[in-house]
């Protein structure tokens, strides 16, 4: 059973930064894509960023130039560095591995 444990969410002022981490148990996630979705209040879940096991990366247009996704050498931990945060980035952020595994979600709130 794969477990994804997220950390790093919290409250930050506009313009601030946060770094999310998602650690996967086992080695399954090292051979598949990982990434982050988010669900803003009252809205549908949306893709934020993803990284394949070979290192290809995609970002949502709304976060390009502000967010950076990366993986550790073992490829079982994925990070999301979020800079220049805006109030519209407020959401629950979920990491995923492959097509079947999801983290529990971590709240990110951007507010003054």
Report on this structure.
By secondary structure, the protein is mainly beta. 0% of the residues lie in helices and 48% in strands. The strands form 2 sheets. Strands 2, 4, 5, 6, 9, 10 and 11 form a 7-stranded mixed beta sheet that branches. Strands 1-3-8-7 form a 4-stranded antiparallel beta sheet, with no helix packed on it. Strand 5 and strand 6 form a beta hairpin. The protein is globular.
Question: For the residues shown, what is the average pLDDT?
Answer: 96
Task: Bin the strand percentage.
Answer: over 45%
Number of strands: 11
In the predicted model, the low-confidence regions spanning at least 5 consecutive residues are: none
Helix count?
0
Spatial extent as radius of gyration: 13 Å
Indicate the percent of residues in helices: under 10%
Distance between the termini: 40 Å
Written as H for each helix and E for each strand, in order along the chain, the element string is EEEEEEEEEEE
**Sheet with most strands:** 7 strands, mixed
Shape, per Cα inertia axes = globular
Structural class: mainly beta
Oligomer: single chain
Which descriptors apply to this entry?
seven-stranded mixed beta sheet; four-stranded antiparallel beta sheet; globular
Write the layout of secondary structure elements.
Elements (H helix, E strand, L loop, with lengths): L3 E4 L2 E3 L5 E7 L9 E6 L6 E6 L5 E3 L7 E5 L5 E6 L8 E7 L3 E2 L3 E5 L2
Parallel strand pairs: 2-11
Antiparallel strand pairs: 1-3, 3-8, 4-5, 4-9, 5-6, 7-8, 9-10, 9-11
């Amino acid at each position: 059973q794969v477990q994804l444990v997220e950390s790093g969410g919290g409250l930050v002022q506009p313009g601030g930064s946060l770094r999310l981490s998602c650690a996967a148990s086992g080695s399954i996630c090292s051979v598949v894509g990982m990434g982050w979705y988010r669900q803003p209040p009252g809205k549908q879940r949306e893709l934020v960023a993803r990284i394949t096991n070979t290192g290809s990366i995609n970002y949502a247009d709304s976060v390009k130039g502000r967010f950076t996704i990366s993986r550790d050498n073992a490829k079982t931990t994925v990070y999301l560095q979020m800079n220049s945060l805006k109030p519209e980035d407020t959401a629950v952020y979920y990491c995923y591995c492959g097509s079947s595994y999801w983290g529990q979600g971590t709240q990110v709130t951007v507010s003054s």
